[in-house]
Design a protein that fits this description.
Length: 408
Protein backbone atom coordinates (compact mmCIF):
# COMPACT_ATOMS: atom_id res chain seq x y z
CA UNK A 1 0.00 0.00 0.00
CA UNK A 2 1.41 3.37 -1.07
CA UNK A 3 0.35 6.68 0.42
CA UNK A 4 0.33 8.42 -2.99
CA UNK A 5 0.98 7.22 -6.53
CA UNK A 6 1.88 9.90 -9.09
CA UNK A 7 1.61 8.90 -12.75
CA UNK A 8 4.26 10.70 -14.82
CA UNK A 9 7.70 12.11 -13.98
CA UNK A 10 7.40 15.37 -15.88
CA UNK A 11 7.36 18.82 -14.30
CA UNK A 12 3.98 18.36 -12.64
CA UNK A 13 4.73 14.86 -11.37
CA UNK A 14 8.14 15.58 -9.86
CA UNK A 15 7.05 18.93 -8.42
CA UNK A 16 4.03 17.28 -6.79
CA UNK A 17 6.25 14.59 -5.28
CA UNK A 18 8.54 17.30 -3.88
CA UNK A 19 5.58 19.24 -2.49
CA UNK A 20 4.25 16.13 -0.76
CA UNK A 21 7.69 15.37 0.68
CA UNK A 22 7.74 18.90 2.10
CA UNK A 23 4.55 18.20 4.04
CA UNK A 24 5.64 14.74 5.15
CA UNK A 25 4.04 12.41 2.59
CA UNK A 26 6.00 9.79 0.66
CA UNK A 27 4.93 9.41 -2.99
CA UNK A 28 5.82 6.83 -5.62
CA UNK A 29 6.26 8.30 -9.11
CA UNK A 30 5.57 5.97 -12.05
CA UNK A 31 7.22 6.96 -15.33
CA UNK A 32 6.66 5.04 -18.55
CA UNK A 33 10.00 6.16 -20.09
CA UNK A 34 13.37 4.65 -19.20
CA UNK A 35 14.68 8.00 -17.89
CA UNK A 36 13.57 11.57 -17.20
CA UNK A 37 11.75 13.08 -20.18
CA UNK A 38 13.41 16.23 -21.53
CA UNK A 39 11.33 16.91 -24.64
CA UNK A 40 10.97 20.64 -25.22
CA UNK A 41 14.59 21.72 -24.62
CA UNK A 42 13.70 24.75 -22.47
CA UNK A 43 10.82 26.78 -21.11
CA UNK A 44 10.10 30.19 -19.68
CA UNK A 45 9.28 30.38 -16.00
CA UNK A 46 7.51 33.58 -15.05
CA UNK A 47 7.20 35.18 -11.64
CA UNK A 48 4.32 32.94 -10.54
CA UNK A 49 6.44 29.85 -11.23
CA UNK A 50 9.28 31.18 -9.09
CA UNK A 51 6.87 31.69 -6.20
CA UNK A 52 5.98 27.99 -6.53
CA UNK A 53 9.63 26.94 -6.83
CA UNK A 54 10.38 28.90 -3.69
CA UNK A 55 7.63 27.00 -1.86
CA UNK A 56 9.20 23.76 -3.13
CA UNK A 57 12.60 24.86 -1.83
CA UNK A 58 14.49 24.78 -5.15
CA UNK A 59 14.25 28.35 -6.47
CA UNK A 60 17.74 29.35 -5.31
CA UNK A 61 19.38 26.42 -7.11
CA UNK A 62 17.77 27.37 -10.43
CA UNK A 63 17.95 31.16 -10.09
CA UNK A 64 21.71 30.93 -9.65
CA UNK A 65 22.02 29.35 -13.11
CA UNK A 66 19.90 31.72 -15.22
CA UNK A 67 19.69 35.46 -15.78
CA UNK A 68 16.33 37.20 -15.19
CA UNK A 69 14.30 38.01 -18.31
CA UNK A 70 13.40 41.69 -18.20
CA UNK A 71 11.59 42.37 -21.47
CA UNK A 72 10.72 41.14 -24.92
CA UNK A 73 10.40 42.47 -28.46
CA UNK A 74 7.70 41.43 -30.92
CA UNK A 75 8.65 42.16 -34.52
CA UNK A 76 6.11 42.15 -37.35
CA UNK A 77 7.88 40.33 -40.20
CA UNK A 78 5.96 42.21 -42.90
CA UNK A 79 5.96 45.77 -41.56
CA UNK A 80 9.16 45.57 -39.44
CA UNK A 81 7.33 47.36 -36.62
CA UNK A 82 8.53 46.39 -33.12
CA UNK A 83 6.50 46.22 -29.93
CA UNK A 84 8.30 46.16 -26.58
CA UNK A 85 6.88 44.07 -23.73
CA UNK A 86 8.07 44.21 -20.12
CA UNK A 87 7.83 41.23 -17.79
CA UNK A 88 6.93 42.10 -14.21
CA UNK A 89 8.42 40.58 -11.08
CA UNK A 90 6.17 39.30 -8.30
CA UNK A 91 5.47 41.03 -5.03
CA UNK A 92 8.35 39.15 -3.41
CA UNK A 93 10.77 40.10 -6.19
CA UNK A 94 10.62 36.85 -8.23
CA UNK A 95 11.63 37.49 -11.84
CA UNK A 96 11.00 35.45 -15.00
CA UNK A 97 13.81 33.31 -16.42
CA UNK A 98 14.20 30.81 -19.23
CA UNK A 99 15.57 27.47 -18.02
CA UNK A 100 16.61 24.13 -19.46
CA UNK A 101 13.79 21.65 -19.02
CA UNK A 102 16.27 18.89 -18.23
CA UNK A 103 17.92 20.95 -15.49
CA UNK A 104 14.54 21.74 -13.92
CA UNK A 105 13.60 18.05 -13.88
CA UNK A 106 16.97 17.03 -12.43
CA UNK A 107 16.79 19.65 -9.67
CA UNK A 108 13.31 18.44 -8.69
CA UNK A 109 14.34 14.77 -8.84
CA UNK A 110 17.33 15.43 -6.58
CA UNK A 111 14.94 16.56 -3.85
CA UNK A 112 13.27 13.16 -3.69
CA UNK A 113 14.32 10.16 -1.57
CA UNK A 114 16.03 7.24 -3.38
CA UNK A 115 13.73 4.93 -5.34
CA UNK A 116 10.92 7.49 -5.41
CA UNK A 117 10.77 7.24 -9.22
CA UNK A 118 10.06 3.92 -10.90
CA UNK A 119 10.96 4.08 -14.59
CA UNK A 120 9.64 1.84 -17.41
CA UNK A 121 6.31 1.71 -15.58
CA UNK A 122 3.32 2.15 -17.86
CA UNK A 123 -0.11 1.99 -16.25
CA UNK A 124 -2.85 0.12 -18.05
CA UNK A 125 -5.82 0.59 -15.72
CA UNK A 126 -7.12 2.33 -12.61
CA UNK A 127 -9.84 1.09 -10.29
CA UNK A 128 -11.23 2.16 -6.95
CA UNK A 129 -12.69 -0.12 -4.34
CA UNK A 130 -14.39 0.62 -1.04
CA UNK A 131 -13.60 -1.45 2.03
CA UNK A 132 -15.08 -0.69 5.44
CA UNK A 133 -16.29 2.64 4.07
CA UNK A 134 -12.81 3.70 2.91
CA UNK A 135 -11.76 4.09 -0.74
CA UNK A 136 -8.59 2.51 -2.13
CA UNK A 137 -7.08 3.06 -5.59
CA UNK A 138 -5.72 0.10 -7.55
CA UNK A 139 -3.23 0.81 -10.34
CA UNK A 140 -2.21 -1.97 -12.74
CA UNK A 141 1.00 -1.76 -14.78
CA UNK A 142 1.66 -3.36 -18.15
CA UNK A 143 4.02 -5.89 -16.55
CA UNK A 144 1.20 -7.14 -14.34
CA UNK A 145 2.27 -5.32 -11.19
CA UNK A 146 -0.63 -4.17 -9.03
CA UNK A 147 -0.17 -1.19 -6.71
CA UNK A 148 -2.67 -0.07 -4.10
CA UNK A 149 -2.66 3.55 -2.99
CA UNK A 150 -4.68 6.00 -0.93
CA UNK A 151 -4.30 8.66 -3.66
CA UNK A 152 -3.59 8.63 -7.41
CA UNK A 153 -2.50 11.83 -9.15
CA UNK A 154 -2.36 11.82 -12.93
CA UNK A 155 0.53 13.92 -14.24
CA UNK A 156 0.76 11.92 -17.43
CA UNK A 157 0.48 14.66 -20.01
CA UNK A 158 -1.88 15.72 -22.77
CA UNK A 159 -3.09 12.19 -23.52
CA UNK A 160 -3.55 11.30 -19.87
CA UNK A 161 -4.89 7.86 -18.97
CA UNK A 162 -5.96 9.22 -15.58
CA UNK A 163 -7.88 12.14 -17.14
CA UNK A 164 -9.66 9.70 -19.44
CA UNK A 165 -10.57 7.53 -16.44
CA UNK A 166 -12.02 10.61 -14.71
CA UNK A 167 -14.22 11.22 -17.74
CA UNK A 168 -12.59 14.42 -18.96
CA UNK A 169 -13.11 14.98 -22.67
CA UNK A 170 -9.96 14.67 -24.80
CA UNK A 171 -7.95 17.81 -25.63
CA UNK A 172 -8.58 19.34 -29.04
CA UNK A 173 -6.21 20.46 -31.77
CA UNK A 174 -5.71 24.23 -31.80
CA UNK A 175 -5.06 24.32 -35.53
CA UNK A 176 -1.39 25.08 -34.95
CA UNK A 177 1.78 23.09 -34.45
CA UNK A 178 5.19 23.99 -33.07
CA UNK A 179 8.84 23.18 -33.61
CA UNK A 180 11.20 23.66 -30.67
CA UNK A 181 14.95 23.39 -30.47
CA UNK A 182 18.14 24.25 -28.65
CA UNK A 183 20.97 25.91 -30.60
CA UNK A 184 24.59 25.75 -29.57
CA UNK A 185 27.28 28.35 -30.42
CA UNK A 186 30.63 26.87 -29.27
CA UNK A 187 32.39 30.25 -29.51
CA UNK A 188 29.46 32.19 -28.03
CA UNK A 189 26.41 33.73 -29.68
CA UNK A 190 26.93 37.36 -28.67
CA UNK A 191 23.32 37.92 -27.61
CA UNK A 192 22.40 39.77 -24.44
CA UNK A 193 21.43 36.50 -22.82
CA UNK A 194 18.57 36.32 -20.40
CA UNK A 195 17.50 39.95 -20.60
CA UNK A 196 15.17 39.86 -23.62
CA UNK A 197 13.16 37.40 -25.68
CA UNK A 198 12.92 38.12 -29.40
CA UNK A 199 9.63 37.20 -31.08
CA UNK A 200 8.53 37.45 -34.71
CA UNK A 201 4.98 37.34 -36.07
CA UNK A 202 3.59 36.84 -39.56
CA UNK A 203 0.21 35.75 -40.82
CA UNK A 204 -0.33 32.29 -39.35
CA UNK A 205 3.20 32.17 -37.92
CA UNK A 206 4.89 33.05 -34.65
CA UNK A 207 8.50 32.43 -33.68
CA UNK A 208 11.12 33.51 -31.21
CA UNK A 209 14.32 32.82 -29.35
CA UNK A 210 16.02 33.57 -26.05
CA UNK A 211 19.57 32.92 -24.89
CA UNK A 212 19.88 30.59 -21.92
CA UNK A 213 23.56 31.27 -21.32
CA UNK A 214 26.61 32.41 -23.30
CA UNK A 215 26.52 29.48 -25.74
CA UNK A 216 22.97 28.09 -25.84
CA UNK A 217 19.81 29.57 -27.32
CA UNK A 218 16.28 28.19 -27.06
CA UNK A 219 14.04 28.80 -30.09
CA UNK A 220 10.54 27.96 -31.25
CA UNK A 221 8.42 28.23 -34.38
CA UNK A 222 4.63 27.88 -34.37
CA UNK A 223 2.42 27.90 -37.45
CA UNK A 224 -1.11 27.15 -38.59
CA UNK A 225 0.32 24.53 -40.91
CA UNK A 226 2.86 21.88 -39.90
CA UNK A 227 6.17 21.57 -41.74
CA UNK A 228 5.42 19.88 -45.07
CA UNK A 229 5.60 16.11 -44.88
CA UNK A 230 6.59 16.18 -41.23
CA UNK A 231 4.92 13.90 -38.73
CA UNK A 232 5.61 13.39 -35.05
CA UNK A 233 9.00 11.76 -34.62
CA UNK A 234 10.18 12.87 -38.06
CA UNK A 235 13.81 13.29 -39.05
CA UNK A 236 15.19 16.43 -37.28
CA UNK A 237 17.16 17.48 -40.35
CA UNK A 238 13.95 17.47 -42.40
CA UNK A 239 12.21 19.61 -39.76
CA UNK A 240 15.10 22.08 -39.65
CA UNK A 241 15.29 22.33 -43.43
CA UNK A 242 11.54 22.81 -43.87
CA UNK A 243 11.48 25.65 -41.33
CA UNK A 244 14.53 27.54 -42.65
CA UNK A 245 13.91 27.02 -46.38
CA UNK A 246 10.14 27.30 -46.47
CA UNK A 247 8.06 28.32 -43.47
CA UNK A 248 10.46 30.92 -42.02
CA UNK A 249 12.38 31.90 -45.14
CA UNK A 250 11.20 35.53 -44.87
CA UNK A 251 12.09 35.85 -41.21
CA UNK A 252 15.09 37.97 -40.11
CA UNK A 253 18.55 36.45 -40.79
CA UNK A 254 19.39 36.47 -37.09
CA UNK A 255 16.51 34.06 -36.41
CA UNK A 256 17.42 31.76 -39.31
CA UNK A 257 21.01 31.66 -38.09
CA UNK A 258 19.84 30.49 -34.68
CA UNK A 259 17.92 27.61 -36.28
CA UNK A 260 20.95 26.61 -38.37
CA UNK A 261 22.98 26.17 -35.17
CA UNK A 262 20.45 23.72 -33.72
CA UNK A 263 21.46 20.64 -31.82
CA UNK A 264 19.44 18.27 -33.99
CA UNK A 265 18.84 15.87 -31.10
CA UNK A 266 16.83 18.61 -29.36
CA UNK A 267 14.44 19.32 -32.27
CA UNK A 268 10.82 18.34 -31.80
CA UNK A 269 7.61 18.94 -33.71
CA UNK A 270 4.19 18.55 -32.12
CA UNK A 271 0.60 19.70 -32.67
CA UNK A 272 -0.54 22.29 -30.11
CA UNK A 273 -3.43 20.90 -28.10
CA UNK A 274 -5.68 22.44 -25.47
CA UNK A 275 -8.66 21.52 -23.33
CA UNK A 276 -11.77 23.65 -23.66
CA UNK A 277 -12.02 25.93 -20.61
CA UNK A 278 -15.64 24.87 -20.00
CA UNK A 279 -14.45 21.28 -19.69
CA UNK A 280 -12.25 22.49 -16.83
CA UNK A 281 -15.00 24.54 -15.21
CA UNK A 282 -17.67 21.83 -15.38
CA UNK A 283 -15.76 18.58 -15.95
CA UNK A 284 -14.65 15.91 -13.47
CA UNK A 285 -11.24 17.03 -12.21
CA UNK A 286 -11.43 14.47 -9.43
CA UNK A 287 -13.25 11.33 -8.41
CA UNK A 288 -12.91 9.92 -4.93
CA UNK A 289 -9.15 10.17 -4.23
CA UNK A 290 -8.03 10.43 -7.87
CA UNK A 291 -7.18 13.72 -9.58
CA UNK A 292 -4.95 15.26 -12.24
CA UNK A 293 -2.36 18.03 -12.50
CA UNK A 294 -0.28 19.74 -15.18
CA UNK A 295 -1.05 18.97 -18.82
CA UNK A 296 -3.19 16.04 -17.75
CA UNK A 297 -5.64 18.58 -16.35
CA UNK A 298 -5.13 21.73 -18.40
CA UNK A 299 -3.21 21.39 -21.68
CA UNK A 300 -2.94 24.85 -23.23
CA UNK A 301 -1.24 26.58 -26.13
CA UNK A 302 2.21 27.95 -25.22
CA UNK A 303 1.51 31.58 -26.15
CA UNK A 304 1.77 32.89 -22.59
CA UNK A 305 4.45 30.43 -21.48
CA UNK A 306 2.23 29.25 -18.62
CA UNK A 307 2.13 25.48 -19.15
CA UNK A 308 5.08 24.67 -16.89
CA UNK A 309 4.28 27.56 -14.56
CA UNK A 310 0.74 26.34 -13.89
CA UNK A 311 2.00 22.77 -13.36
CA UNK A 312 4.23 24.06 -10.55
CA UNK A 313 1.27 25.93 -9.08
CA UNK A 314 -0.75 22.68 -9.16
CA UNK A 315 1.98 20.89 -7.22
CA UNK A 316 2.05 23.44 -4.41
CA UNK A 317 -1.75 23.55 -4.18
CA UNK A 318 -1.95 19.75 -3.99
CA UNK A 319 0.76 19.59 -1.35
CA UNK A 320 -0.98 22.25 0.70
CA UNK A 321 -4.40 20.58 0.63
CA UNK A 322 -3.16 17.02 1.15
CA UNK A 323 -0.86 18.29 3.90
CA UNK A 324 -3.96 19.23 5.85
CA UNK A 325 -5.06 15.56 5.72
CA UNK A 326 -2.08 14.16 7.59
CA UNK A 327 -2.46 12.61 11.02
CA UNK A 328 0.07 13.07 13.81
CA UNK A 329 1.87 9.85 12.84
CA UNK A 330 2.63 11.26 9.37
CA UNK A 331 0.09 9.28 7.37
CA UNK A 332 -2.76 10.52 5.23
CA UNK A 333 -6.12 10.22 6.94
CA UNK A 334 -8.17 8.30 4.38
CA UNK A 335 -11.46 9.85 5.41
CA UNK A 336 -10.13 13.37 4.79
CA UNK A 337 -8.45 12.75 1.44
CA UNK A 338 -11.55 13.16 -0.69
CA UNK A 339 -12.29 16.56 0.83
CA UNK A 340 -8.68 17.67 0.27
CA UNK A 341 -8.77 16.61 -3.38
CA UNK A 342 -12.10 18.39 -3.86
CA UNK A 343 -10.72 21.61 -2.35
CA UNK A 344 -7.69 21.39 -4.65
CA UNK A 345 -9.90 21.00 -7.74
CA UNK A 346 -12.11 23.88 -6.66
CA UNK A 347 -9.07 26.15 -6.18
CA UNK A 348 -7.59 25.35 -9.59
CA UNK A 349 -10.68 25.38 -11.86
CA UNK A 350 -11.07 29.09 -12.52
CA UNK A 351 -7.34 29.77 -12.51
CA UNK A 352 -6.44 27.24 -15.20
CA UNK A 353 -9.57 27.91 -17.28
CA UNK A 354 -8.47 31.56 -17.37
CA UNK A 355 -4.94 30.56 -18.40
CA UNK A 356 -6.20 28.36 -21.24
CA UNK A 357 -8.45 31.13 -22.55
CA UNK A 358 -5.86 33.91 -22.27
CA UNK A 359 -3.18 31.74 -23.92
CA UNK A 360 -5.41 30.89 -26.85
CA UNK A 361 -6.48 34.52 -27.38
CA UNK A 362 -2.90 35.74 -27.06
CA UNK A 363 -1.72 33.32 -29.73
CA UNK A 364 -4.61 34.16 -32.04
CA UNK A 365 -3.99 37.91 -31.80
CA UNK A 366 -0.21 37.69 -32.13
CA UNK A 367 0.15 34.97 -34.72
CA UNK A 368 -2.29 36.45 -37.22
CA UNK A 369 -0.82 39.89 -36.70
CA UNK A 370 0.28 41.05 -40.16
CA UNK A 371 -2.98 42.10 -41.75
CA UNK A 372 -4.36 45.52 -40.87
CA UNK A 373 -7.23 44.38 -38.65
CA UNK A 374 -5.12 41.92 -36.69
CA UNK A 375 -2.35 44.49 -36.24
CA UNK A 376 -4.95 46.78 -34.73
CA UNK A 377 -6.11 44.02 -32.40
CA UNK A 378 -2.55 43.22 -31.38
CA UNK A 379 -1.62 46.83 -30.71
CA UNK A 380 -4.85 47.76 -28.93
CA UNK A 381 -6.36 44.57 -27.52
CA UNK A 382 -3.13 42.75 -26.72
CA UNK A 383 -1.05 45.81 -25.91
CA UNK A 384 -3.54 47.26 -23.43
CA UNK A 385 -6.32 44.92 -22.32
CA UNK A 386 -4.79 41.46 -22.65
CA UNK A 387 -1.41 42.85 -21.63
CA UNK A 388 -2.86 43.78 -18.25
CA UNK A 389 -4.38 40.33 -17.89
CA UNK A 390 -1.01 38.76 -18.67
CA UNK A 391 0.72 40.83 -16.01
CA UNK A 392 -1.93 39.84 -13.50
CA UNK A 393 -1.46 36.17 -14.38
CA UNK A 394 2.28 36.34 -13.69
CA UNK A 395 1.71 37.94 -10.27
CA UNK A 396 -0.36 35.00 -9.00
CA UNK A 397 0.74 33.55 -5.65
CA UNK A 398 0.01 29.84 -5.18
CA UNK A 399 0.80 29.92 -1.46
CA UNK A 400 3.23 28.14 0.84
CA UNK A 401 3.77 24.62 2.13
CA UNK A 402 3.71 24.40 5.89
CA UNK A 403 2.26 22.70 8.91
CA UNK A 404 4.15 19.37 8.88
CA UNK A 405 7.83 18.49 9.26
CA UNK A 406 9.19 17.41 5.86
CA UNK A 407 10.52 13.93 5.18
CA UNK A 408 14.33 13.58 5.36
Amino acid sequence: MEEVVIVGAGIAGLATAVALKKVGVQALVLERSEELRTTGAALGLFANAWVALDALGVSDKLAALYTPMEKGYITDVKTKSIQEVHYPSSRNGAQPRAVHRKVLLEVLAEELPPNSIRFSSKITSIETQVEHGLSTCIVTLDDGTIIKSKVVIGCDGVHSIVARWLGLRPPVYSGRSAVRGLSVFPKGHGFDHGHAIQQFVDVGKRAGFIALNDKEVYWFFAATCPPKGVEKGADPEMIQREVTENLAKDFPPVYLDVIKHSDLSSLTWAPLMFRYPWDILFGNLFRSSVTVAGDAMHPMTPDLGQGGCSALEDAVALGRHLGNSIAEHGKLVTGDIGFAIERYAKERRLRVATLITASYLSGWVQQDGSNRFMRFLRDVFYGFLLGRVVKGIAKYDCGKLHGVSPLP
